[in-house]
Design goal:
With about 350 residues, the protein is α/β, with parallel strands linked by helices. Helices cover about 25% and strands about 25% of the residues.
């Protein structure tokens, strides 16, 4: 018999969330981001859930090839571009769009003398300071690409650091927008600037393409809850109570004896641990649902299990259903309690967890 820990993926929720993304940018085309195994939901499921997207975007060349093998015929974008010259053969054979963010990548294209056609996305570093050309170097990079005969289409791209926090004192959103606009002035090509937060919160930032990621999976990119945006959770992680302990005041629970009971308690042991992707650093009282009743964790999360407080959950016992996140318990709420973000919890889902589809 398998362990009772199951992740349920709702394909209709993926489809619904894509429609939400489209409704916020009705005049734009959509790259549905499926990197990191579709944020832990499964690449093939992401492909089916986002069948109405205009293209799929990811960073792994091998998974781009897998999408082609699975039958995806529309555009595919490599968000980090190529990593070495060998990737160019993959790009041509699989008809992949790819980002260009450094002079070394341009040099690879110049030396390769490919026949093309190549569709590239020239990335600007508008202030996030990860990948891309600074605004004052952007036009020179653009001209080098334009001089390569194989290059057919150039899309002007950047990525926002704080679209969910537009007044962030470290880098206000409007500062990035201005940097981008200054760097592309006079260039007639299509633009790709909006991530999930920009798509949902900043309709004034018009672009030809939007690149939603986390919102497609039913979590919030920040600032407000996913539910307020009309998003639906696509992943629900559930398990069961597999053990019961009655403890008295002064007794401790788990490794390190981090939690000590102040009085008599009923404790349930859940079949899930950090080897399944649940955050080991989750503190006491991280929310869970037991038979639909809200309660919290107690003690340290271990490899295969953790404990929850059942004292105020009437009728709970061995076999009771435990919702760790998803339907009825937003993943963002669990992530916030654990000091992380919903992205990490999704992506951390371990291979040993059984996955089923609705």
């Amino acid at each position: 018999m398998p362990r009772p820990l199951v992740a349920t993926i709702d394909i209709s929720a993926l489809q619904h969330n894509l429609h939400i993304a489209k409704s916020h940018a009705p005049d734009a085309k959509i790259w549905a981001v499926v990197k990191a195994n579709a944020y832990g939901h499964g690449l093939e499921r992401g492909m089916r859930g986002f069948a109405e997207a205009d293209g799929l975007a990811l960073i792994e060349p091998e998974n781009a090839l897998r999408l082609r093998d699975l039958g995806w015929q529309k555009p595919i974008l490599l968000l980090e571009g190529i990593f070495d010259a060998a990737d160019l053969e993959t790009v041509v054979q699989a008809r992949l769009d790819f980002a260009v963010h450094c002079t070394e990548q341009i040099a690879l294209l110049e030396r390769a003398a490919l026949e093309g056609p190549l569709d590239v996305h020239l990335k600007m570093n508008s202030g996030m300071n990860r990948l891309g050309f600074k605004p004052d170097a952007y036009r020179a990079a653009y001209q080098r690409l334009r001089s390569i005969p194989a290059v057919r289409k150039i899309t002007l791209m950047t990525h926002f650091a704080n679209a969910d926090d537009p007044l962030n004192p470290g880098l206000p959103l409007q500062q990035q927008v201005q940097q981008f606009e200054q760097g592309v002035v006079g260039l007639p090509d299509e633009r790709s600037i909006a991530n999930s937060a920009a798509d949902l919160m900043h309709p004034e930032l018009k672009s030809d393409w939007v690149r939603p990621g986390i919102m497609l999976y039913g979590a919030s990119p920040g600032a407000t809850s996913a539910e307020q945006f009309g998003l639906r959770p696509a992943m629900t992680l559930r398990s069961k109570i597999i053990g019961i302990q009655r403890i008295e005041a002064g007794e401790a629970i788990g490794y390190g004896s981090r939690f000590v009971a102040a009085g008599p308690m009923l404790i349930g042991v859940v079949a899930c641990g950090y080897a399944d992707g649940y955050p080991r650093h989750a503190p006491n009282d991280t929310p869970v649902l037991v038979d639909g009743v809200r309660t919290g964790t107690v003690g340290r999360v271990s490899m295969d299990m953790f404990s929850v407080d059942l004292t105020n959950v009437p009728g709970a016992g061995i076999g009771s259903t435990v919702t760790l996140w998803g339907d009825g318990l937003p993943i963002d709420e669990v992530a916030h309690a654990a000091g992380t973000i919903g992205y990490e919890l999704m992506c951390a889902l371990a291979a040993r967890v059984k996955v089923v589809e609705l």
